[in-house]
Amino acid sequence: MPQYKEFHLESGVNKMTNKKKFGVTLFIILFSYFLILMDNSIIFTSTVKIANDLDMNQATLAWVSNAYTITFGGFLLLAGRLGDLIGRKKIFITGLLIFGISSLFVGLSNSAPMIIIARAIQGIGSAIIAPTSLALLMDNYAGEMRSKAIAYYGATAGIGSSFGLLLGGWLTSAISWRAGFLINVPFALFLLVLSLFSIKVTSVTKQRVDYLGAVLSVVMSIIFVYGITISNLVLILLSILIGAGFVYYERKIDFPLIPMSLFRNRIRSSSYIVRFIFMMAMLTYWFILPQIMQHMYHFTPLQSGMGFIPLTIVNFAAALYLPKLTVKYGNGKVMILGQSILLLGVVISTLVNPHSGYLFTMGLPMILIGAGQGWLLAPLTAAGITGVAPEEAGAASGMTNVMHQLGGPVGLSIVVLFTSNIVDLSNYYQSVMSFISSFLFVGLIILLINNRKN
Fold it and tell me: What one GO molecular function would you report for this record (predicted)?
């Protein structure tokens, strides 16, 4: 039997240990990441019921999603770096506590202000869990074990989002919209107990804390996401100015919140951009399809969730085969392959007349979309953390997740801006899918250029 080797951070020194199995740590990492992604997409199939129960209009209802998105995106950079500075086990457990308690209050909400505040706090918990889970993966696995773990992590990113639509539709139809959030509570408690006993305490980076950088990163991200969600150009420009100031400040100090060395590696930098573009496309895709399924094909929320099953199954199957594919062709070529297949599936779905029915318009193209997604997300994740020093793992993980979280609202806002006046459902669907195809095409061009330079 081959002996795989693994890096553990102990007293600041990487020590090699033999390991044949992933153990419970990978389960904790993947399940925690799955929970926050699933929770993020459950809301798509629950909004109508929430509005009816809490007597919310469309403007107020939007904040059930916006509040979560703003705090999630706003605290990612800070949360990722805190794992390096304070200790990943400590910050990860804190994230689970915040996520679990806030999920309870979301599920018990009896008014609009209560659910919006609880969702905002839930976003902070998710912002802690997302980058810390990836950094824990880097701490605990190396070599072939890390490659496989990242493949499973990437598959979780795609499966969690699409499975959330299925689970949300079922829980909303069979029980209540509240069940989709209350189910997080026992899961978070279970993961918390497992983490206390199973996750090793890692060494921390001994350096001064960049408090000003922390404040700037949170303010910049929150203003940006808020500006995007309400389509306010002034706020978006303000956030960009703050971002420029943040970068200038971080380059000048010796203890930056986000080391600028992260962006000196071309593979890492391009992976952040492509991941951002991927989420511009895919969040819009996950947003529009349930609408078309329910309004044009008269699916129930449960049926619209089940409509993503082809994508979910193929995504999982593709991810299982990914490690062999990466060993044979290399990470860069696999990313191009995944992006190309994903783009092909979306283009086919765009060109088919929606009146042809679910199977030809969405179901069959999902086979290609699922395969492309399965062969893209994990290589993008690997590229985003490639060559990163252990003491900067949290910062790199935070940047990877920032791109994942912020890309979606940007893409969706652009599409809504240009398609909101289209009344005909068929034209609306094809217009939105054309935007999605364009986003993915730009991502493919970036990958092809970067691969040629390598």
Answer: transmembrane transporter activity
Q: Which residues pair with 13 in a beta bridge?
A: 10
d(C-alpha 405, C-alpha 334), whole Å: 23
Residues 6 or more apart from 274 whose CB is under 8 A from it? 335, 339, 380, 443, 446, 447
Q: Do residues 75 and 218 make contact, with C-beta atoms less than 8 angstroms apart?
A: yes
Write the pLDDT tens digit of every residue in 146-178: 878 887 887 777 677 667 667 777 777 778 888
> What radius of gyration do the chain's Cα atoms show?
21
Two tokens at 44? Answer: 């798509």
**What one-character DSSP code corresponds to residue 201?**
P
Let me know if domain 262-453 sits in CATH 1.10.533.10: no
Q: Is the pTM of this model over 0.85?
A: no
143-174 and 112-140 helices, crossing angle to 10°: 160
What φ, ψ does residue 10 adopt, rounded to 5°?
Answer: -135, 120
Query: What residues form DSSP beta bridges with 14?
Result: 9
**CATH T-level assignment (fold) for domain 23-200:** Growth Hormone; Chain: A; (1.20.1250)
Domain ranges of the chain: 23-200, 210-254, 262-453
Instruction: Please give the Cα distance from 447 to 271 (Å, whole number).
Output: 8
| Residue 50 to residue 61: CA distance in whole angstroms | 8
Average pLDDT value for residue range 72-78: 80
Are 72 and 123 spatial neighbours (Cβ–Cβ below 8 Å)?
yes
Helices (H) and strands (E) in the chain, counts: 19, 2
Q: What are phi and psi of 5, to 5 degrees?
A: -110, 150
